[in-house]
Request: fold
Amino acid sequence: MKTRGAVLASAGTLLITALTTGAAPAHAADWRTGWCVEDEGLSVVVDFGASTAATVPTEGWLVRCLVGGEIQADGQGTRVAALRAVGLGVDADRGGYVTAIDGVEEFDPDGWWFFSGATVGGPWDTAYHDIVSDGPNLNKALGARLVGDNWVSVPRPAPQFGQPEPDPEPQPDPAVAGSTPLVTGRAQVGVRLTADAGSWSAGASLGYQWLRGNQPIVGATRASHVVTAADRGRRLRVRVTGTLAGYTTTVLVSAPTANVAAGSLTSAKPKITGRAKVGQRLQAKPGAWGPGTVRFTYRWLRNGKPLAATSRNYRLRPADRGTRITVRVTGRKAGYVAVTRASAKSVRVKG
Reply:
């Protein structure tokens, strides 16, 4: 059976000189759990062998990455300094022998701590320990294993690179806060509808688009919309878009209106001008109608009975002598209900 001295002698470069006891780290270092990714630092591996101590991880080994890979030995020995730099408690005697790592002691004659080194990508090598204390140890690994009665001295996890952390998913910009718009006003041709946008994020710019069904109405991009003949029988909605720098645009659409009803024309009682005498010409005056331009048709009546005369002017005939003449005016406009108004009766026609 090998003695402790024989083992250290056979390891050659494993001799660690001027070691001190205690668990304080050799220097303040950045480390994390897991293998170093390429060009990140030095991977430090501890394989606790068959030990079942409470401090031993479930898988029986641990791996930590010394970021940057720089070791400050400060007289403690490179390998002990590396273990302590990744937060491990290390006990070593004055002869340079590691007696415990994280509370797990070697036990003689069945086991002792044995060190291996590797250039990551290659295997563990018990004769290769090119771990330096005067520069960065990049893409290298240092392993320690508690050798048991099966005399296995190489750490179980093979040297390897860790997977780089994925870039964090970009966080979406917060959305502009807004309220569902409300359409006010009667859904009728000629009536002005208004969009009540409600409450939105402070500073948000609001854009409007009126919709006929689901289709945008060309040019209807203000907060109000006068219902047109093309809207008759359809349902209207308004779409409000809120934009603000640094925020995701929010688009909200109102509930639909009722089916748009036909508009109502304003009208006036027609008048007849001209002299009520056979051979003279009478003219119909519709008066003020609206909204906008209204198209008129005419029907002249004798004593309340319709004549064939349908123009604005009517020349009195002998058959009109002694009768009373009236005119019926009908106003029409697209999208509106037609309206018919009758004039007052003329004075009795003279011969």
